[in-house]
Specification:
This protein is α+β, with helices and mostly antiparallel strands. Helix content is 31%, strand content 30%. Bound molecules: glycyl-adenosine-5'-phosphate.
Length: 438
């Protein structure tokens, strides 16, 4: 059984900043708490995580289509979904030190963990987690709107649009990747819990009698996705929710959990939402949100199985799972053993020296690979330091152009995990890399 590794947390936060994965937002103004910007490498990693999800959930399936719904949304949606009434956390204030806490997260519901005083809490108040703003130029006449706290409702309110235009029939799914916003009371653990984050969600609409079977199918399929992308099986588990943990809409949920540096925690929830959402929106809007099965002559409201993952959280988990340190010749080598599909750069082109004589050939090599793979070009520092830098950011292959290249039209290709090197002629380089990178 793997143990939580608290030191790994600091190493990942440090690496993220030092190498340009994740920066504190508004840093030049002192930093905007629990908000993050994805740097040159982070944006590539995040995009690769989202692409891998989209490929598996949409591209490789005949029964799932995509959607990109708006973030701004009217209150009717959240009234019907239950978020206005239920999407809240119970808050208490300490009358001694003014600290604010989530009642349900306190070890002792009577004692303030900040100042240690007992019996000084105010009555618990429900704090709604949705960000509210106004649409229109004049505040007092403008309409209230909300930033969506999940992407899921976009799929429910477009159910009929998609059904009528895509010629799909249950079982079929609608998938979406996008930003969501929650006014979290206890954001923290770096990008694990933030107020602005990205989700990857899919609503799979099924005949009611097939819901259990599809719930089990998606639990397994989602576990397989993480494993296929290189997450170690002993750092991943599927944990069914207890009854008292279930969301207001769910009749069954399992979490995919990862062994984070602080212990097991959630990456994704797979929920059996029943017909709750379509029924709620049909009742509130007066529109029919059901399906008429011509074969059986039956009309029914599909049930929904929802695999809902966090893109930003998952990207961080892949970083943590890939991080490795090994001793090589008495030195510690840090290497991100990321699956090739997730690595920010697939190839780095490294001219051995900055001398002008190598530059044209090194550019030629960069031009050869850049159309097919995201590539880095680096001519600073010694070759050893550049290899170390590429290992630390997870680049699977370094291609070195040296003085011999000018004579033999061949380059040295070094593989990240084994550090093995091959001499490959330039006219075979693309094939060599394609065989290994796909
Ligand atoms: N539509 C269902 C839904 O939104 P959720 O469990 O609240 O379910 C799904 O969210 C996933 O979104 C979580 O498993 C997590 O990965 C991610 N997520 C939720 N809140 C987050 C936050 N504040 N920061 C980062 N990721 C978050």
């Amino acid at each position: 059984m793997p143990e939580p590794d608290p030191q790994l947390f600091d190493k990942i936060v440090n690496l993220s900043k030092r190498r340009g994965f994740v920066f504190q937002s508004a840093e030049i103004y002192g930093g905007f708490r629990s908000t993050y910007d994805y740097g040159p490498l982070g944006v590539l990693l995040l995009r690769n995580v989202k692409d891998a999800w989209w490929r598996s959930m949409v591209q490789m399936r005949h029964d799932v289509v995509g959607l990109d719904a708006s973030v701004l949304s009217p209150p009717q949606i959240w009234q019907a979904s239950g978020h206005l009434a239920n999407f809240s956390d119970p808050l208490v204030d300490c009358t001694n030190c003014n600290a604010r806490h989530r009642l349900d997260k306190l070890d002792d519901p009577d004692q303030c963990p900040t100042c240690g005083t007992s019996g000084a809490f105010t009555e618990a108040r429900d704090f709604n987690l949705m960000f509210k703003t106004q649409a229109g130029p004049v505040a007092d006449t403008a309409a209230d709107v909300y930033l969506r706290p999940e992407t899921a409702q976009g799929m429910f309110i477009n159910f009929a649009n998609v059904l009528n235009t895509s010629r799909k029939k249950p079982p079929f799914g609608i998938a979406q990747i996008g930003k969501s916003f929650r006014n979290e009371i206890t954001p923290g653990n770096f990008v694990f819990r933030t107020r602005e984050f990205e989700q990857m969600e899919m609503e799979f609409f099924v005949p009611p009698e097939e819901s259990t079977q599809w719930y089990e199918y998606w639990c397994q399929a989602r576990m397989d996705w993480y494993l296929d992308l290189g997450m170690p099986s002993d750092e991943l588990r599927l944990r069914p929710h207890d009854d008292d943990e279930l969301s207001h809409y769910s009749s069954g949920t399992s979490d995919v959990e990862f062994m984070f540096p602080w212990g097991w925690d959630e990456l994704e929830g797979i929920a059996n939402r029943g017909d709750y959402d379509l029924t709620q929106h049909a009742n509130a809007s007066g529109e029919k949100l059901d399906y008429f099965d011509q074969a059986s002559g039956e009309r029914y409201t599909p049930h929904v199985i929802e695999p809902a993952a966090g893109a930003t959280r998952t990207a961080m988990a892949f970083l943590m799972a890939a991080y490795d340190e090994e001793t090589v010749n008495d030195d510690t080598r840090t290497v991100l053993r990321l699956d090739h599909r997730l690595a920010p750069y697939k190839v780095a082109v490294l001219p051995l020296s900055k001398k002008d004589t190598l530059t044209p050939t090194a550019h030629e090599v960069f031009d050869l690979v850049k159309g097919r793979w995201m590539a880095d070009y680096d001519e600073t520092q010694s070759i050893g330091k550049r290899y170390a830098r590429q290992d630390e950011i997870g680049t699977p292959f370094c291609v070195t152009v040296d003085f011999e290249t000018l004579d033999d039209r061949a380059v040295t290709v070094r593989e990240r995990d084994s550090r093995e090197q091959d001499r490959v002629s330039l006219d075979q380089l693309e094939g060599y890399l394609a065989e290994r990178l796909g």
